[in-house]
């Protein structure tokens, strides 16, 4: 059975992911920004209410992954707090202005995860590096657990060739988690064309909040609805397909 990780934006998503039969959760806030660090309260409640492993996003802001020293201080403080609160791993990514992996910060985060017996997951910052194979080999040397990647494509369907190549060449040395655009419609094709053993998706639906807009005032961030939640029935169907 393929491992299904749900990209969750809050406690309700976590509860629904477990109810659907998902194997693992990546816990975030602000999914519309690509996922930011969750609050400690959300993680604490999730650890109390669910049994499947929770990977915590460590990302202090939107945009790219080139962080200054103040941002890094916050990230490492968050990381330690999350691990002590029960996270089973951390998702993170550090890049230099030139588009290379920031190896000092990356090594430090991997070592922190090892101290807690937790998974170290380099997220889709990897899809922005200029030298993916060289980066892969260095991550393997450092003992990184897993890479969340679209194969450096704008979405997973445009990165299938790279994913298939990397899974074949490096899949016994590091885990690959395919993400970005995973849906019920393409699950089977992704697996058939890549040989991946893990997939990552949100399977979201949109919810209306009647207080989102008032005349010219609007807090809506999508034309599809007011805010998004992982859709229970879609996740259940995904689990069934992947069995």
Automatic annotation (TrEMBL):
Main localization category: cytoplasm
Keywords tagged on the record: Cytoplasm
Pfam families: CutC
One example GO MF annotation: copper ion binding
The UniProt record lists the keyword Cytoplasm: yes
InterPro entries cross-referenced by the UniProt entry: CutC-like, CutC-like_dom_sf
Gene3D superfamilies assigned: Copper homeostasis (CutC) domain
Gene Ontology terms: cellular component: cytoplasm
Locations listed in the record: Cytoplasm
PANTHER family, A to Z: COPPER HOMEOSTASIS PROTEIN CUTC, COPPER HOMEOSTASIS PROTEIN CUTC HOMOLOG
Family: Belongs to the CutC family.
Protein name as it appears in the record: PF03932 family protein CutC
Gene this chain is encoded by: cutC
């Amino acid at each position: 059975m393929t491992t299904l990780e749900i990209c969750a934006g809050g406690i309700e998503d976590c509860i629904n992911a477990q109810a659907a039969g998902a194997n693992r959760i990546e816990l975030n806030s602000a999914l519309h920004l690509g996922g930011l660090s969750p609050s400690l309260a959300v993680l604490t409640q999730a650890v109390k209410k669910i049994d499947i492993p929770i990977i915590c996003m460590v990302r202090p802001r939107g945009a790219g992954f080139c962080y200054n020293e103040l941002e890094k201080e916050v990230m490492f403080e968050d990381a330690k707090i999350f691990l002590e609160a029960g996270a089973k791993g951390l998702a993170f990514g550090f890049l230099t202005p030139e588009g290379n992996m920031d190896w000092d910060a990356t090594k430090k985060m991997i070592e922190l995860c090892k101290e807690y017996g937790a998974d170290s997951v380099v997220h889709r910052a990897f899809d922005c590096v200029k030298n993916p194979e060289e980066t892969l080999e260095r991550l393997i040397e450092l003992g990184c657990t897993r890479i969340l990647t679209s194969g450096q494509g704008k979405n997973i369907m445009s990165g299938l060739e790279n994913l298939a190549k990397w899974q074949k060449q490096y899949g016994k040395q590091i885990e690959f988690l395919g993400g970005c655009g995973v849906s019920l419609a393409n699950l089977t094709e992704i697996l058939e064309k890549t040989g991946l053993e893990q997939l990552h998706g949100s399977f979201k639906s949109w919810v209306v909040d009647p207080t989102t807009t008032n005349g010219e005032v609007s807090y809506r961030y999508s034309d599809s609805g007011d805010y998004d939640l992982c859709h229970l029935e879609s996740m259940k169907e995904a689990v069934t397909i992947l069995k």
